[in-house]
Amino acid sequence: MEGSLLSGLNSGVVLSLIAVLWTVVWQNLQHLQLQQFFGRHLSRHARRLAAMVDPYLSVTIAEYEGGRMKRSDAFEEVKAYLSDACSRGVRHLRAEGAKDADKLVLSMVDGEEVSDEFEGATVWWWAYSKSPPRNDGAAAWWSGGGAAQEERRFYRLFFLERHRELVLDTYLPRVRQLGRAVMVKNRQRKLFTNISTHQWSDGGYMRSAWSHVVFEHPKTFATLAMDPAEKKKIMDDLDMFKKGKEYYARVGKAWKRGYLLYGPPGTGKSAMIAAMANYLDYDIYDIELTSVHSNTDLRKLFIETTSKSIIVIEDIDCSLDLTGARKKKKKSAAAEEGDKDKKNAPAAAGEKKDTSSKVTLSGLLNFIDGLWSACGGERIIVFTTNHVEKLDPALIRRGRMDKHIEMSYCGFEAFKFLAKTYLDVDEHEQFEAVGELLREVEMTPADVAENLTPKSLEDGPDSCLAALVKALEEAKEKKASGGKGLDEQDEEEDEEEE
Ligand SMILES: Nc1ncnc2c1ncn2[C@@H]1O[C@H](COP(=O)(O)OP(=O)(O)OP(=O)(O)O)[C@@H](O)[C@H]1O
Ligand SMILES: [Mg+2]
User: Which residue ranges does the record assign to the AAA+ ATPase domain (predicted)?
Assistant: First the structure.
């Protein structure tokens, strides 16, 4: 038996055996510890040996595409697909939270391998990671600090040469498709914000990176008090956007839309953003502009956002010097732009730790509708402000901020909505009095809602509405006496001048 096996091996096969063994050993010595090689991967090598008469091919899918600029969709899809497939045959798993609070999404840890069957063919997936190359200046610049030091993860798919077409043309597209379906099933929406990092070089450059928590805001359009007709218009607009992929492609516009929400504090601008995200089922990227160190940094943050997301810059008038004063300086600032951008480039080795934001108006305009803004698609950009009149017109012109929505003081329609939501009443004898008072005094929906909130278990619609009428009458008296209201206005004006 032994003799017949040996005689069956001709010298060509022996040579291929040595070559395959050498390649396997060499590859693994490069990426893995020797111990890992003899431990975890014996099964893989046994499989490779078995495949030597019919050589295997491999496809590698990296976590990041284009150096470290953008997370690969394919990687995420494969990861999601394998999370379903791998829990069967893998011994060491990584767990992450899922949409359902009791469940976990499982994926392979590095070094693990799982086999999969498809139309009679067997394929093998192997998860591994590599340390980033040292002193990779350009990559580190793009990656923006700490992220560059993280390990780069990969999935490598092995399959026999005779299954090449089946795997490349049918299996892989199917994996991506199923992976996307798993992602939708497990998806937890996220609320991202940018934080400063300064870890990657001796020079201590400050860069921004996204950090996130699970987004769980309860506000929906069903609980947002505003004129029903206006609300319907906004919801229709969002529907059009979400289903507008073909439309945007046909008219040659990047698939994104800008919303400017403006109005006094407490009128529901932030609440509206939460309602939009819940309605569209999008993630939110809340950018703190003062923590963005340069235009390049801002662009990098943008590239890292995923599609199906709302990018928010709250209180845009406070975040940057984009006000009227800025406008006067516009010419000279524009002249400086080029210089600033150059300073922010990686070549600016002289730049030391600098925590101040160098984002400029032109950097922000570029962010909204420059060439980079089109990458990825399906993004909504929202700016909020209490002082729309102070913003540079270039920033909010149609095309950049396509839809301007005024969030205003509480009107009678919004009040009726709040009364229904908070007290479950459609009609009440106090409604008329409230309606009249709301025409005379300005009260934000936030204040009306607070007055309608029961303060004890005994409180019902009668006492809450009475409390609201009382608060409105007090506000009316203050307004009539002119005292405090005007003082407040003066104070605000002083602050603005400062
Ligand atoms: N139109 C509204 N309908 C329902 N609730 C509202 C509305 N407006 C405000 N609120 C409630 O009032 C509170 C404050 O609202 P929000 O934070 O959205 O105001 P804002 O306009 O973002 O204020 P600011 O300009 O200070 O950021 C929230 O709890 C919100 O739920
Ligand atoms: Mg707000």
Answer: 255-411
Shared domain check, 321 and 455: no
User: What six digits make up the tokens of 323?
Assistant: 């006000």
Indicate if ligand 1 lies below 6 Å from the C-beta of 224. yes
Atom 14 of ligand 1 has which residue's CA nearest to it? 266
Same domain flag for 382 and 330: yes
Last residue of a domain, one of 188, 215, 239: 188
The predicted-structure confidence for 32-69, as pLDDT tens digits, reads as follows 444 444 445 556 666 666 666 667 889 999 988 765 56
Neighbours of 184 (CB within 10 A): 11
426-to-261, 413, 419, 420 alpha-carbon distances in Å: 29, 11, 7, 6
Kindly state whether residues 229 and 183 are assigned to the same domain. Answer: no
Percent of the chain residues past pLDDT 90, beyond the cut = 32
315 CA from centroid of ligand 2 (Å): 8
Domain assignment present for residue 164? The answer is: yes
Give the domain extent around 419: 412-497
Q: What is the pLDDT of residues 333-388, one digit of tens each?
A: 443 443 333 333 333 333 334 445 678 888 888 888 777 777 778 999 999 999 98
Q: Please check whether residues 214 and 299 belong to one and the same domain.
A: yes
At 155 the pLDDT is: 92
Expressed in angstroms and rounded, the spacing between residue 269 Cα and the centre of ligand 2 is: 5
pLDDT, average across residues 182-202: 75
Q: Are residues 167 and 198 in the same domain?
A: no
**pTM across the whole model:** 0.69
- The residue whose CB lies within 8 Å of the most ligand 1 atoms, and thus the one to mutate among 221, 227, 267, is 267
How many whole angstroms from 270 Cα to the centroid of ligand 2? 4
Ligand 1 atom, smallest distance to 223 CA: 4
Evaluate whether residue 45 is within a structural domain.
no
What number is the average pLDDT over the span 463-478?
92
Tell me which of 272 and 83 has the higher pLDDT.
272
| Two tokens, residue 52 | 């030597």
Residue 265 CB less than 6 A away from ligand 1: yes
Per-residue pLDDT for 477 more than 70?
A: yes
Q: Domain for residue 33, yes or no? A: no
Q: What is the number of H-type helices and E-type strands within the chain?
A: 23, 15
Q: What number does the ligand 1 atom closest to the CA of 261 have?
A: 21
Q: Give me the residue label for tokens 């829990």.
A: 87
Residue nearest to atom 26 of ligand 1 (CA): 265
Ligand 1 close to Cβ of residue 376 (< 6 A): no
How many domains is the chain partitioned into structurally? Answer: 3
325 and 397 co-located in one domain:
yes
Last residue of a domain, one of 149, 164, 188: 188
Q: What is the pLDDT of residue 495?
A: 54
Q: Are both 261 and 378 inside the same structural domain?
A: yes
Which pLDDT band holds residue 23 (cuts at 50, 70, 90)? low
Q: Residue 26 falls within a domain, yes or no?
A: no
Residues 238 and 160 in one domain: no
Q: Would you say 157 and 123 are in contact if contact means Cβ atoms under 8 Å apart?
A: yes
Cβ contacts of residue 410 below 8 Å, gap of 6+? 225, 418, 438, 443, 444, 445, 447, 448
Q: How far apart are CA 210 and CA 204, in angstroms?
A: 19
Most informative mutation of 217, 270, 288 for ligand 1 (most atoms within 8 A of CB): 270
| Nearest-CA residue for atom 24 of ligand 1 | 265
